[in-house]
Specification:
The chain is of the alpha+beta class. Helix content is 27%, strand content 48%.
Amino acid sequence: MASTDRIDTIRAIFAAYLSGNRRLVEAALSDDFRFTSPYDDNIDKPTYFERCWKNSDWIERHQLERIFVEGDEAFVTYLCVAKGGKHFRNTEFFAFDGDKVKRIDVYFGASFEDGVFVPQPR
C-alpha cells in the first residue's frame, strides 16, 4: 500500500467519525486491531467501538495538521474542536497490516477553552 493510500485511509477514518460512518471505520480496522490511549490499554476492536465510538458525538471537527507515513506506520497530529468551544491537539500513531489499520496509539496534548489552558485531572 502506497503512503498516499495510507494518508487517504487516515483521512477517511477521521471523516467517518464526524459523519457517523461506523461501517467505514470497521472495514478499515483489522480483526486483531488494538487501541491504546491514556484511558485504554491495548483494547480490542469490539471494546474500542463500545468505549470510543459511542462517545464521539461531542466532536465538532478535526483539523488534520500533519500526517507522516513511513512504510507500514504513520503519525497524525490534529486539532480537535469540541462542541462548546473546548479544543485540544493530539497525536496518533497508526500501524498498518496490508491495507488495514492494526493498531492506533493516542497521545493526548494540552486542552484549551476560549483560548485559555485547561489543566486536566490527574
